[in-house]
Amino acid sequence: MNRLATRDTLDQLLALLPSVGFSDDPDEQTRAVLKPLIERAVELRLADARGNGDGLGRAIELNAGACPNCETPTASSRTPYCCVDCKETAAFVRQIRAAIADGSILNLERQMNFGQKWWSLQGGGYPRRQLMVPAKTIAKVIARDGGVCAICGAPATEIDHTGSG
After folding, report:
1. Would the pTM of this model clear 0.85, i.e. be above it?
2. Residues 147, 156: contact at Cβ < 8 Å?
3. Nearest to residue 23, comparing CAs of 115, 94, 93, 106?
4. 73 three-class SS
């Protein structure tokens, strides 16, 4: 895909994405987390087009034996990444680039999926999934477990799925 088509797709995407905090709707919140990421990608593209860019248009020199994401030394011969987080982040970037290239990033459901993944990669978990659990159900689970965390015994304030079933 050429640069102009990519720029058009990014412009369309920015017009579709809500701003963070704009809505209480979990789906909108999930999509909104992508907006700052896409805005930054557009900024980098514009900087590269002006000749003073810092990344998207230049070749990256990879250090042999170092993680391509964070440059942490890694001795693995099976993967160039130092950890699962770096590997998943690289996969996310590849998926976003492919979705921009084929235009599927403009699909609202695809945006929600990417938003969920981005939230997870940034350490925020899956808030949309948690918001879908009614408060009554959360209260029942906490009461069932005696008001304490089933793992550490601290006072329970939220629930999380930790089992296999």
Report:
1. no
2. yes
3. 115
4. strand
Tens digit of each residue's pLDDT (9 = 90 or more) over 51-105? 655 554 444 566 778 888 888 888 877 888 888 888 899 999 999 999 998 999 9
Token pair of 46 as six digits: 């514009």
Element (H, E) at 144: helix 135-144
Q: What is the DSSP letter of 55?
A: S
Residue 148's DSSP bridge partners are 155
pLDDT in tens, 94-150: 999 999 989 999 999 999 999 988 888 887 665 555 666 778 888 888 899 899 987
DSSP 159: -
Task: Specify whether the CB–CB gap between 155 and 138 falls below 8 A.
Answer: no
Task: Answer for the pair 69, 61: CB distance below 8 angstroms, yes or no.
Answer: no
